[in-house]
Write a structure and sequence with these properties.
With 450 residues, the chain is α+β, with helices and mostly antiparallel strands. It folds into three domains: 156 residues, PAS domain (Beta-Lactamase, 2-Layer Sandwich), CATH 3.30.450; 90 residues, Methane Monooxygenase Hydroxylase, Chain G, domain 1, CATH 1.20.58; 158 residues, 2-Layer Sandwich (Heat Shock Protein 90), CATH 3.30.565.10. The chain is built from nine helices and 13 strands. A six-stranded antiparallel β-sheet has the order 3-2-1-6-5-4. A five-stranded mixed β-sheet has the order 8-10-11-13-12, with helices on one face. A hairpin with a 2-residue loop joins β4 and β5. α6 packs parallel to α9. The longest helix has 78 residues. The two termini are 42 Å apart. The N terminus is likely disordered.
Length: 450
């Protein structure tokens, strides 16, 4: 819980305007909707009450005109009261009250048993006595619910005063508004869910933006570091390779010294080549390397690579063999990338073989051209084919610098494979060897490259 509400969390929230806005929206918007809905319902209720009061006033006006235009007729007035209540379903009662010496007497009533009873004088009645010829209203809330009590004072032609007193029920109105109020809550819930989804989306968008920024800065720092290291290593390697070449020109060297210098020169050349390849791979990953798409004969590229690699074997008992189509296996791709794939996989095989055979079988298909590298023999790489494309891995009995170079060759090959949109499959067969199959599409499509 302490971690959930840590100071860093609040700092992050208040430093991100979008997160802060999302939280404010989540907390306050539903409350604002409820408050607004209540305001609308209250306004609708007030309008309805005003409409009811206007209707009741019209009824009172009609009764007042009837009473003022005639002399007192008890039977006619009684029928008029009952008929008026029958026509207005929400009208609870309608009474004609006459002021007498003993008090206010109910002369006519729509409720049985109320006739000739005394009516209790109240403030509304007192106001009606003063404000003649208009209907006064008062909203009363009691155990029976909400009601509108209306009063009007009128005189007939004989001078007799009558209070027209009516009670109008608002219970149906209240029930309708409560029903509408409860129907609003599901709508508010849907709105809240939508707002919550939008807020979560904003938070994720901020997280993705921060992650993108962090990843972009990390990749940029890595590219800069790679370029800096490559620049710093090239100069001493060039000096070492130059001195080794100069010393090899000395004819007085012993055979042992010459072999050691050759090994030094070869090692510096390999490291310089690896540095150049790492820089190229960094460019590929950064998307700054432009591929030159043109027809490439994989058979011819394979022959050229094998001819270039064979001098490296010297006295190593490894045989390089090419089978399948030696020419005519043409694909539309980048020749340099395919050359690097074949070269790096062959070099990887040589570095991880003590003795044996490396066979490259070219098989042209309808949509792909398969480069099948069959590695047969004894070597540290034969024990686990799953680590073929790992940049660094340890093999039994191998030295650190040998592991680095061997793993790096296949890893660089994998980068080129992904760049040209090819697929690779590695299979280890016990007591037989390792098979590496690279399927190059016959026609390069940018979306196939990963």
């Amino acid at each position: 819980m302490r971690q959930l509400f840590s100071r860093q969390l609040f700092y992050t929230v208040f430093q991100q305007p979008q997160v802060l806005v999302a939280l404010i929206v989540i907390v306050f918007l539903p409350l604002l909707f409820v408050y607004t809905a209540n305001l609308f319902l209250d306004a609708g209720r007030a309008n309805y009450v005003a409409t009811v009061e206007s209707a009741v006033a019209s009824i009172h006006d009609a009764l007042a005109l009837t009473i003022a235009g005639d002399r007192y007729q008890p039977a006619a007035y009684e029928e008029m009261v009952l008929r008026t209540v029958a026509r207005n379903h929400d009208m609870i009662s309608l009474e004609l009250v006459v002021p007498e010496v003993a008090g206010l007497r109910v002369a006519h009533s729509s409720q049985p048993g109320r006739r000739d009873q005394l009516y209790e004088r109240d403030l509304l009645l007192a106001r009606a006595t003063i404000e003649v010829n208009q209907t006064l209203h008062e909203v009363v809330v009691d155990e029976a619910g909400s009601q509108i009590q209306s009063v009007r004072l009128v005189r007939d032609q004989s001078g007799t005063q009558f209070y027209i007193i009516s009670t109008y029920s608002l219970n149906n109105l209240e029930a309708a508004f409560v029903k509408n109020l409860w129907s609003i809550y599901p709508v508010l819930l849907v709105i809240y869910v939508i707002v919550l989804v939008i807020a979560i989306w904003h938070v994720h968008a901020i997280s993705y933006r921060d992650l993108f920024t962090y990843t972009y800065d990390t990749l940029r720092s890595r590219r800069q570091f790679t370029q800096m290291i490559a620049h710093e290593l090239r100069e001493p390697l060039t000096v070492a390779r130059g001195y080794a070449s100069m010393m090899l020109e000395n004819n007085t060297l012993s055979q042992k010294d010459r072999a050691e210098l050759e090994q030094i020169k070869h090692a510096t050349e390999r490291i310089a080549s690896s540095i150049a390849d790492i820089v190229d791979v960094a460019k590929i990953q950064a998307g700054t390397t432009q591929l030159v798409i043109a027809p490439v004969d994989i058979g011819e590229v394979t022959v050229a690579v094998l001819n270039d690699v064979r001098p490296r074997l010297n006295d190593i008992p490894i045989t390089l063999v090419q089978s399948g189509r030696l020419a005519g296996a043409v694909v539309k791709s980048d020749e340099q990338a395919i050359t690097q794939v074949i070269r790096r996989l062959v070099e990887h095989s040589i570095d991880n073989l003590v003795a044996g055979t490396i066979e490259i079988d070219i098989n042209a298909r309808r949509t792909t051209c398969d480069i099948h590298i069959k590695i047969r023999g004894k070597g540290p790489a034969m024990h686990d084919a799953r680590k073929t494309f790992a940049p660094f891995f340890a093999t039994p009995g191998s030295k650190t610098h040998e592991t680095l170079v061997a793993g790096l060759s296949a890893w660089i090959a994998r980068q080129y494979i992904d760049t040209i949109g090819a697929r690779v499959n590695v299979e280890s067969i016990k007591d037989v060897g390792v098979d590496i199959v690279v399927s190059v599409p016959t026609s390069y499509h940018q979306h196939t490259a990963s």
